[in-house]
Write a structure and sequence with these properties.
single chain, binds adenosine-5'-triphosphate, Beta Polymerase, domain 2, Hydrophobic Seed Protein, about 55% helix, binds magnesium ion, alpha+beta, about 475 residues
C-alpha cells in the first residue's frame, strides 16, 4: 500500500477489495482519507469509490463482518454507509457531475475514476489508492496532489473559476483546509475565490457556519479568518467582524486595528482551549466596539459600553449564523459582557467588594473568563504587556484569596424571595426584589457576614425602612 495503514484498516480494505473482485468492479480509496494518511493526520472516515453500484458493494462488504454491520443507504444518491468498529466507511459509484448556475446541486451520471477525480474540490482531495488486483495499493494522482501536500498548497484540479462558481461552498472549504492544515492557497485558486465571492450567497447558512466553526477550531484560526477577510467573503457572511477592521486617526491619535487584535486574541485562546464556545467568545469579545466608537476631544478614541452593546449583539449574530440559541449562546454573551471586568479591576484598588462582585457575576465561569482576559492582552509594547500580566496575576491571586474565605462563587442568597413574602405577608412585588438586592449588596460589599442570621437581621432592617413589618 502506498499509504501506511493500521492492521484494522488493512483488514477492512482487504475485505473491500475481495467484495469488489467478486462483483467484478474496480474500487478505490479516495479523498480525505488518503490525504490525511499522507499528512499523518488521524482519520476515521473512509470514502470508497467504485466503478459500479456503491450500495451493492457496501452490502457485499458488510456480509463479510460479524456481526453484520447495518448498511444505511441513499438510493437517490447511490451512496451507502457502514460502520466497522470506529471506522465510518462510505461507498459511492464513480460519477460525473454537471452544474446549473442557480444551485450547488449538480446533475449526476455514472462516470470513470477520472471523472470522479475531476469533480473533487482540491488536488489534495483527489488522490485515490487502488484496491484492484492489477495495481493494489498504488496511488493514482492525476493532478500532482501528492506534491501539493508536500508543498503545503491548496489548488483546484480544474479551472478554479469553474470549480468555485459550480459549488461556492468550496471557497469556504479551501480556506478551512488552509487553516486546518496550515497550507497556503495557490495564486490562481485564490483569484478564483476572490472573483466568485458573491456566489457564497447561494450556500446555505448551515454549511457556511459549519466551515466557520472548523476554521475556529483549527490550531491557528487567524489564518483562516484572515483569508476570509482578504477574499471579501467575510464582508458578505459576517459584516460585523469586518466593521472591526482598520484604525482611524484624528489629531494624530489613533486606535488599534480591532480586527487584527481580535484575531490575535483568538489565536491566544486557541493555545489554551479547544472549546468552540470559548473561541467564539474570543472572536466576539470586542464586537461592540464599532457601534460604540467615539472620538473625545483631547482624550482620544473610546469604546464606552462596548461590552454591553457587544453582549446584546451576541444573540442576533448567533441567530443569523444559525448557531445554537441555548446555554452556549448565553455563555458567549456572558463572557463578552464580563470580559473587561478583571482587567478594569486592576486600575483601581482591588477591593474585596469588587472581587466578590466579580465572583458572584461570573460564577462557575470565572476561570474561563480569566483565560479570555489573559488572551486579550496583546499590546506590542512589552512594558505594557508586562504591567497587564502582573496586574492580571494579582487579580487571580486575590480571586483565590477571597473565594477561599467567602465562598461567593455559586453563591445563593441566604434569604429567598418566598421567605420575604411570607415573613412580611406581601404578594410578589417590587419590594421583594429590592430587599433581596439590598441583602446581596450588603454581603458582597462586606457590610454584613455571609450567613443566614445576619442576612435575616439585615432583611428586617431594610424592610422597616419600607414600612414593612413581620406579620407573625
Ligand atoms: P473532513 O472530513 O476533514 O471535512 P474531507 O476532505 O474528508 O475533510 P468530506 O466533506 O468528508 O471532506 O468529503 C470527502 C471528499 O469528498 C473530499 O476529500 C473531496 O474529495 C470530496 N468533496 C467533499 N465536498 C466536496 C465539494 N463541495 N466539492 C468537491 N468535492 C468535494
Ligand atoms: Mg471526511
Amino acid at each position: 500500500m502506498f499509504i501506511k495503514c493500521t492492521e484494522q484498516e488493512a483488514y477492512i480494505f482487504d475485505q473491500v477489495a475481495r467484495a469488489a473482485r467478486e462483483l467484478g468492479v474496480d474500487a478505490y480509496i479516495i479523498g480525505g482519507f488518503v490525504r490525511d494518511k499522507i499528512i499523518d493526520r488521524e482519520s476515521k472516515d473512509v470514502d470508497i469509490v467504485c466503478l459500479g453500484d456503491g450500495i451493492e458493494l457496501a452490502n457485499k462488504v458488510a456480509g463479510y463482518f460479524k456481526p453484520v454491520p447495518k448498511v444505511s443507504f441513499f438510493k437517490n444518491f447511490g451512496t451507502a454507509h457502514i460502520k466497522v468498529d470506529d471506522m465510518d466507511i462510505e461507498f459511492v459509484g464513480a460519477r460525473k457531475e454537471s452544474y446549473r448556475s442557480h444551485s450547488r446541486k449538480p446533475e449526476v451520471e455514472p462516470g470513470t475514476l477520472e471523472d470522479d477525480q475531476n469533480r473533487r474540490d482540491f488536488t489534495i482531495n483527489a488522490l485515490a489508492v487502488s484496491l484492484n488486483k492489477s495495481n493494489f495499493g498504488e496511488l493514482i494522482d492525476p493532478f500532482e496532489g501528492y506534491r501539493a501536500i508536500e508543498e503545503k498548497i491548496i489548488r483546484t484540479p480544474l479551472d478554479p473559476d469553474r470549480t468555485f462558481s459550480d459549488d461556492p461552498l468550496r471557497m469556504m472549504r479551501a480556506i478551512r483546509f488552509a487553516s486546518q492544515l496550515q497550507f497556503t492557497i495557490d495564486e490562481v485558486t485564490w483569484k478564483g475565490i476572490k472573483k466568485n465571492k458573491e456566489r457564497i450567497k447561494i450556500v446555505s447558512q448551515e454549511r457556511i457556519t459549519d466551515e466557520l466553526n472548523k476554521i475556529l477550531l483549527s490550531a491557528k484560526p487567524s489564518a483562516g479568518l484572515d483569508f476570509l477577510f482578504q477574499s471579501g467573503i467575510l464582508a458578505i457572511i459576517f459584516p460585523e467582524m469586518v466593521a472591526l477592521a482598520g484604525a482611524e486617526y484624528i489629531d494624530g491619535m489613533g486606535h488599534k486595528d480591532n480586527f487584527y487584535h481580535t484575531l490575535q486574541v483568538v489565536d491566544n485562546i486557541a493555545v489554551y482551549t479547544d472549546d468552540l464556545w470559548l473561541r467564539w467568545a474570543a472572536l466576539l469579545h470586542d464586537i461592540g466596539k464599532p457601534p460604540t466608537k467615539r472620538f473625545e476631544e483631547g482624550h482620544g478614541w473610546t469604546f464606552h459600553g462596548h461590552e454591553v452593546v457587544g453582549g446584546r449583539m451576541v444573540p442576533k449574530i448567533f441567530s443569523k449564523l444559525k448557531l445554537p440559541l441555548d446555554n452556549k449562546m448565553r455563555f458567549v454573551r456572558k463572557l463578552v459582557e464580563l470580559h473587561l471586568r478583571p482587567i478594569s479591576l486592576t486600575k483601581e484598588n482591588i477591593t474585596d467588594s469588587a472581587i466578590r462582585r466579580l465572583l458572584f457575576d461570573a460564577g462557575d465561569d470565572i476561570d474561563t473568563l480569566m483565560l479570555l482576559c489573559k488572551a486579550d492582552i496583546t499590546s506590542k509594547n512589552k512594558q505594557k504587556v508586562k504591567r497587564y500580566l502582573d496586574n492580571f496575576e494579582m487579580v487571580k491571586y486575590r480571586l483565590e484569596e477571597v473565594e477561599t474565605s467567602d465562598k461567593i462563587r455559586n453563591w445563593q442568597p441566604p434569604v429567598s424571595g418566598e421567605m420575604i413574602m411570607e415573613v412580611f405577608g406581601i404578594p410578589p412585588c417590587r419590594h421583594v426584589g429590592d430587599i433581596k438586592n439590598a441583602i446581596k449588596d450588603a454581603i458582597l460589599d462586606g457590610e454584613i457576614e455571609n450567613s443566614y442570621e445576619s442576612a435575616y437581621a439585615y432583611m428586617l432592617r431594610v424592610a422597616a425602612t419600607l414600612n414593612l413589618h413581620p406579620v407573625k
